[in-house]
Amino acid sequence: MKIGIVCPYSWDVPGGVQFHIRDLADHLIRLGHQVSVLAPADDETPLPPYVVSAGRAVPVPYNGSVARLNFGFLSAARVRRWLHDGTFDVIHIHEPASPSLGLLACWAAQGPIVATFHTSNPRSRAMIAAYPILQPALEKISARIAVSEYARRTLVEHLGGDAVVIPNGVDVGFFDKAEPKAEWQGGTIGFIGRIDEPRKGLPVLMRALPKILAECPETRLLVAGRGDEEEAVAALPKEMRDRVEFLGMVSDEDKARLLRSVDVYIAPNTGGESFGIILVEALSAGAPVLASDLDAFAQVLDQGAAGELFANEDADALATAAVRLLGDEERRTELSERGSAHVRRFDWSTVAADILAVYETVTDGAASVAADERVSLRARFGLARD
């Protein structure tokens, strides 16, 4: 199958949507499909052979973060050329409601379109206001996917219609087989995320750290991500700042090794999360997880069975839970085992099969799927008939 995938956010800047698209493309290519990804990127940036640049992105504040999007006449021309040259069997657009390549592709594409919605934002006035503009493009979509029940709810409330829920995928084996790093082991807690993005929750963790260190003075906090490191520790007492080690941006390999090494992985995110891919990665690596009780995080962690939850933005609750886990090796082992079993449902072998099934339902004359199988797939995913 010839598959065109549209990424709305800059390929040069790491993020959950970009990682999802990258890993999906890699998995589909390994299965023998032809895949091309269109994404914003600086023209001089080295790209994988399957990624086509649509030009440089522009930073736009969105959903408590800064999204790097691409929109305009030049971008529209590149979208049309990519669609013309690709002759795709199916176009898979991510975040088609964002003012970026996905919306442009929705307007320009002919033939089957599958859309994945990642955003969870129950109070988006901008999305409601933009609906009349978005409606003609969204009506061209043949099938809709939401990465979580909360992303589905945002879609239903703001844009109408419905979607099948297919979660983000992870290469579970990649994290499970990573080798721990000796210098990252021994009384360590981990955080991975953009340091200067408040909704990722590092300030909450920093407020909790003095209480954690008072009870567990040998604990070290390992922080991976870009941002102002001095500002991040500014509120900490000076004598505690050496208990925080900043690792900067880490490779995928080192991220997996970090998650395999820490005693507890902490996700103190405060909002704006529709899924929680870092939680799935941590579970895949066997890390005991402690996360804020966001609805999306609770769903990923099986309502607390696969990882512990604390009250969102409550630094004292975070500290109390972290101290308890650091002092209870048996509980950490139990969480690791439960998490490792639970996370298998998010492996790409399962997730990509579900996405391919959706592709098949919207592709006319797919030789690999018999008519009765197509009826079964449509019933499974709740999709309309051709």
Automatic annotation (TrEMBL):
Keyword vocabulary terms for this entry: Glycosyltransferase, Transferase
GO biological process: carbohydrate derivative biosynthetic process
GO terms of molecular function: glycosyltransferase activity
InterPro entries: Glyco_trans_4-like_N, Glycosyltransferase_grp1
Residue intervals of the Glycosyltransferase subfamily 4-like N-terminal domain: 14-172
CDD domains found in the cross-reference section: GT4_PimA-like
SUPFAM superfamilies assigned: UDP-Glycosyltransferase/glycogen phosphorylase
Pfam families documented for this protein: Glyco_trans_1_4, Glyco_transf_4
Name used for this protein in its record: Glycosyltransferase family 4 protein
Source lineage: Bacteria, Bacillati, Actinomycetota, Actinomycetes, Kitasatosporales
